[in-house]
């Protein structure tokens, strides 16, 4: 139950962080959503599929998401994902 709540909070935060990005690019219907980049949810799902675990924090700056990730064994890892291409690299 706590894990479900944690995931819901993280996803809500991710959506909240993505809103300013959509607004800067014109929002949905004006070329600002998927046509210009990869949805954050797809990037998070990609990392989750490869590593398991969950996002601890997500920040957006200069066209990239910096994602702090907690693996199932408790390790923290930092990823940088290009918002346009969706390419993820571990830092």
Brief rundown of the structure:
This protein has 91 residues and is an alpha+beta fold. It has two helices and four strands, in the order H-H-E-E-E-E. The longest helix is centred in the first third of the chain and has 24 residues, at 2-25.
Characteristics:
91 residues, alpha+beta, four-stranded antiparallel sheet, 4 strands, 27% strand
Give an overview in words.
- The chain has helices spanning 2-25, 40-51; strands at 54-61, 64-70, 76-82, 88-90.
- It has 91 residues and is α+β, with helices and mostly antiparallel strands.
- The chain has one domain (2-90).
- Strand 2 (64-70) and strand 3 form a beta hairpin.
Number of helices: 2
* Fraction in helix: 25-40%
Counting helices, strands and paired strands, the structural category is alpha+beta
Rg on CA atoms, Å: 13 Å
Calculate the mean pLDDT score and round it. 78
> What global shape is seen?
globular
Overall number of structural domains: 1
Poorly predicted tracts of residues: 20-35
- The fraction of residues in strands falls at 25-35%
Query: What kind of sheet is the major sheet?
Result: 4 strands, antiparallel
Note the run of SSEs as H and E: HHEEEE
What topology, given as strand order, has the largest sheet?
1-2-3-4
Total DSSP E strands: 4
What is the CA–CA distance across the termini?
A: 31 Å
